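Thread: FE2/S2 (inorganic) cluster complex, take 2
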Amino acid sequence: MSDEEINMEILLDHYRSPRNYGKIEKPSVELVEYNPVCGDAVQFTLKIENGILTDVKFIGRGCSVSQGAASMLTERVKGKSTEEVMNIGPQEILSNIGLNLGPSREKCALLSLNALQKSVRKYRDGEK
Ligand code: FES
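Output below.
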């Protein structure tokens, strides 16, 4: 199996058995983000305590890349500080997925990062 095939298997496994799927009761913040091109969506609910993302869940509908990437992202950020979450760059997500995605599929892969970082911003704005 090539690296690309292994990475595809990992992504599909997240798509078929999403981790951290669902909604947190009484979240610190929740937010829905759409891909305007296709209408696919993810909804994130976060629990933030003392600047730490103590819990994160998502629900969504969409292609295997958007939903698989959302699941992978939740595993990556749980327990991290909001600062660390805001410092994740798109390239980190794309190299973590490790597939040769074209520009439109890259948007699918980055939908959940946008949603998550917008959620943190919304939470911070609410604190002011
Ligand atoms: Fe809609 Fe991928 S095709 S998010």
